[in-house]
Amino acid sequence: MLAALAGGALYAIVVTSPPSTQDKHITVLAAASMQNALDDINTAFTKNTDVKVIAGYAASSALIKQIAQGAAADVFASANLEWMDFGSKRKLIKDDTRVNLLGNQLVLIAPKDSKLDSVAIGPNLDLAKLAGDGSIAVGDVREVPVGKYAKAALEKLGAWQAAAPKLAMAINTRVALTMVARGEAPLGIVYTTDANGARYCGDRRPRCVENLDVLRPGQSAAAEVTPSVKIIGTFPADSHPAI
């Protein structure tokens, strides 16, 4: 059974047990939106401890379901409390290890060369009109955390009914980011940390793993993208549950 660190924020970690001296590695399964931060942390951790971190990134929902099916992990980092609670109720994690770690913001993005530069996000936002004939890339609103936050925000702002038919729902926030960076969608809703760290690996180098439902340990998430994207608006913090 996994041990867990969590509380009442959006990001939480679950730990099974410390690595043994014979097996000097730990396996981390983490929300795709945490990749930029965790890659740096993992590198520093290995340098300081000589313990290798094998990381796999995907949607929180997909990862906890893999754990439920027997996937081995030492640490689980979720992008929201719902999927951490899912693991807790099924005795997949150690509740006394749950800790809230980080926060984030929900932002509206466009391709870097888009004519849209600044959008005032507030009540009666007409996101469907802004998207024109294109789609709005976002995580699956039924189970991917960023998608759930996006739906909550659009409902609060009175934009959900018009925007819903235009949503292009992705398996995680990084895939949604990639769609916008490539120009496949004129707009997207992601976390600010994803947008700020975006660059496009057009040559498909090994670190650019695309369209995987769940990334295997050691693989990187899909969307380090260039020609990048730009943030054109930030959703009010009170338009969705705390991130």
Summary keywords:
single chain; 243 residues; alpha/beta; D-Maltodextrin-Binding Protein, domain 2; 4-stranded mixed β-sheet; 28% helix
Task: Please outline what is shown here.
The protein has 8 helices and 9 strands.
Fraction in beta strands:
15-25%
Query: What is the percent of helical residues?
Result: 25-40%
Would you tell me which CATH topology of the largest domain applies? Answer: D-Maltodextrin-Binding Protein, domain 2
Rg measurement, Å? 18 Å
**Strand element count:** 9
Number of helices: 8
Instruction: Tell me the overall shape.
Output: globular
CATH class category name of the largest domain: Alpha Beta
**Separation of the first and last Cα atoms:** 27 Å
- Can you write the helix and strand succession as a string? EEHEHEHEHEHHEHEHE
User: What's the overall average pLDDT, rounded?
Assistant: 80
Strand order of the largest sheet: 7-6-8-5-9
**Domain unit count:** 2
CATH architecture tag of the largest domain: 3-Layer(aba) Sandwich
Structural category is alpha/beta
